[in-house]
Amino acid sequence: MRLIDASFRASVPLDVTWPAVWAAGVATSLLFFGSIVAHEAAHTVVAVRTGIPVRRIRLFIFGGVAEMNREPDRPGQEFLITIVGPLTSAALGGLCLALASQLGPASIPGVTAGWLGEMNLALAVFNLLPGFPLDGGRILRSIVWAATGNVVRGTRVASFVGSALGAALMAFGLIQFLLLGGAVQALWTAVIGWFLWSAARSGYRHAVLRQQLQRYRIVDLLRPESGAVPADGSVQEFIERGLYHDRFGLRPVVDASGMLMGMLEGDDVRDVPLEERVFTHLRDIARPVDLMAVVAPDDQLDAVIDKAAETDRRLFFVVDEGRVLGTVDAEDVVNTLRARKR
After folding, report:
1. Does residue 335 register a pLDDT over 70?
2. Dihedral sign, CA of 64, 204, 202, 304?
3. Mean per-residue pLDDT for 9-17?
4. Phi and psi for 275 in degrees, rounded to 5?
């Protein structure tokens, strides 16, 4: 807001009132917020169109992130998903600057449009810095990945550059604080540097973890018990056996041959009226199969981690050609990785 106020006082006539300046500042902040949303929405649209679902767009103090259900499968896919964000910010910046030139520099709308143009261009340039996890770092990773065929090597290079960039910003912030004054600006520079340094290291660890997970298949950690219940069983039998409050919060409903027909939660059973429980079969109240609760035996273990992160579930049913084989526990995945590190 102080930057906006200073811009207004330097650019607009002196008779502009403070309420107008503050109103313009609030409007400009909201519009810039919308610019960040547009940047992340561009990532989201391309991700979805290339086959990667996106859970949500999350905004925080340093900007935003489109949280994808999984990482890109190909370097070209990651390049396209990533590059569209800075291009969107650059396009918005150019549009705002063009609008500012038409509105005139000595007006509140002109100053607002000019500031938005400059900030969007700055956002595009900053995101293109070649350090992971910035967009530029992801672009660098995709290039190294394409050249070497190794996503971990690409992540290592991009993370190293990101760590170096973060360390340089922290050092610059410290020097700025000690020699040049300006404590707030110096602190902000150092905090951004720490964020980049920390995120780059975390991103590399995440890539290594995924590579380790891809060495295993779901079948390697398969548990034969699934908590399956027979489709022709009655609700009364289900309740008498106490199956609605054990560790299987969601149960598969199967026919006599073990084929999956639906799923059942405890609330589905309790909602059946008392007088109807003896005559109501489980298949009559079963829900459609929840694909987010199902994995295939040949899937890689990172499929469990992805679904656990998205659904907050721990237990997943292993299904092969419609037949329930058992379960896989996300905790077993974690324990497997811990054992490997010893």
Report:
1. yes
2. positive
3. 53
4. -70, -10
